[in-house]
């Protein structure tokens, strides 16, 4: 298998994890317990999952990469992946292999949106502010998640006639609990400038701005476009974004573009001219200057 980017759906996950306990649910949700030897090979290669995924590490340790940043996943830790991110597992120490024990949970945006809590908004905001999708569970939190998982297992084995509806209720409860923990992590997270007053208004606008940038950065890099979408003036939008994040709007846009360019250069065989076209640069020269200004390397040097 090559190192090119693989886009996988929740339906694909069922093929990679055949022992899923959620086989009676639709492709909107996936839940599986994974031990060493069950880890699908495709996860060693760059993958973009069309959905939200949380990996709960119960035992063992490995190195994962999300959007070219490395994270250590160890016992009692959780790593969250949101749609659009590119991740892979790239290192498992030999002594850790037989210890590996994970629970993998994945859900589509539609599944999360069907719940009353806006998980999509919450997870995207948290990832943006924390800039670290990996956090450690407390022992009590791990114990509660374990009981949820045991209950789901028992329900599946019991073959209840309304299993799908029953499981949706249990899963929603689990998500509410996970959401409360995630919000606590967000509230306690270190901000770029702790002395800066982050109003509810500025945080909400930042969240909306980043959602739009994640969708349109390959075509639109001017603040006027995003300001119009949010019914704000470019100047006021820029002020709110900087207040909430400590970074300017153009800096956020550039960071999305650079990350996308790096992913294309590293995880595809796409010619640089095609990358220039896909990222809507007027020509290769402008792209080269932009990339080098932000990375210190030319695209060719980065690709190696």
Quick summary:
The protein is α+β, with helices and mostly antiparallel strands.
Structure description:
The protein is built from 13 helices and ten strands. The chain is α+β, with helices and mostly antiparallel strands and 304 residues long. It has two domains: 6-188, Regulatory protein AraC (Jelly Rolls), CATH 2.60.120; 200-303, Orthogonal Bundle (Arc Repressor Mutant, subunit A). It is globular.
Fold topology:
Elements: E1 6-8, H1 10-16, E2 29-35, E3 47-49, E4 52-59, E5 61-66, E6 69-74, E7 77-81, E8 87-91, H2 94-97, E9 101-107, H3 109-113, H4 119-130, E10 134-136, H5 139-158, H6 163-188, H7 200-216, H8 223-229, H9 234-245, H10 249-267, H11 272-278, H12 284-295, H13 299-303
Parallel strand pairs: 1-3
Antiparallel strand pairs: 2-9, 4-7, 4-9, 5-6, 5-8, 7-10
Helix pairs in contact: 4-6, 4-7, 5-6, 7-9, 7-10, 8-9
Number of strands: 10
Query: Mean of the pLDDT scores?
Result: 78
End-to-end separation: 20 Å
The profile of the biggest β sheet is:
5 strands, antiparallel
Structural class: alpha+beta
Q: Percent of residues in beta strands?
A: 15-25%
Q: In the CATH hierarchy, what is the class of the largest domain?
A: Mainly Beta
Quaternary organisation of the protein chains:
single chain
Instruction: Provide the CATH superfamily of the largest domain.
Output: Regulatory protein AraC
From N to C, what is the helix and strand string?
EHEEEEEEEHEHHEHHHHHHHHH
Residue share in helices?
40-55%
Count of alpha/pi helices? 13
Task: Record the strand order, biggest sheet.
Answer: 2-9-4-7-10
CATH topology of the largest domain: Jelly Rolls
Shape: globular
């Amino acid at each position: 298998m090559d190192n090119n980017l693989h886009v996988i759906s929740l339906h694909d996950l069922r093929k990679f994890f055949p022992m899923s306990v959620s086989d009676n649910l639709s492709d909107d949700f996936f839940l599986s317990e994974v031990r060493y030897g069950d880890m699908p090979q495709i996860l060693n290669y760059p993958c973009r999952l069309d959905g939200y995924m949380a990996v709960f590490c119960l035992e063992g340790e490995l190195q994962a990469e999300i959007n070219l940043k490395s994270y250590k996943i160890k016992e009692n830790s959780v790593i969250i992946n949101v749609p659009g991110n590119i991740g892979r597992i790239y290192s498992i120490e030999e002594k850790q292999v037989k210890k590996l024990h994970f629970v993998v949970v994945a859900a589509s945006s539609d599944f999360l949106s069907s719940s009353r809590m806006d998980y999509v908004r919450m997870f995207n905001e948290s990832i943006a502010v924390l800039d670290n999708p990996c956090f450690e569970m407390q022992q009590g939190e791990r114990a509660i998640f374990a009981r949820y998982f045991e209950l789901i297992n028992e329900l599946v084995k019991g073959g209840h006639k309304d299993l799908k509806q029953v499981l949706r209720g249990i899963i929603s409860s689990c998500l509410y609990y996970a959401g409360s923990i995630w919000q606590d992590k967000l509230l306690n997270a270190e901000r770029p400038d702790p002395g800066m007053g982050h109003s509810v208004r500025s945080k909400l606008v930042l969240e909306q701005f980043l959602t739009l940038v994640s969708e349109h950065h390959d075509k639109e890099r001017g603040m006027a476009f995003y300001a119009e979408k949010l019914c704000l003036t470019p100047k006021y939008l820029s002020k709110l974004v900087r207040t909430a994040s400590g970074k300017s709007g153009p800096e956020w846009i550039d960071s999305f573009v650079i990350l996308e360019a790096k992913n294309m250069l590293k995880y595809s065989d796409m010619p640089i001219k095609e990358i220039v076209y896909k990222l809507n640069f007027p020509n290769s020269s402008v792209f080269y200057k932009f990339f080098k200004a932000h990375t210190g390397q030319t695209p060719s040097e980065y690709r190696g």
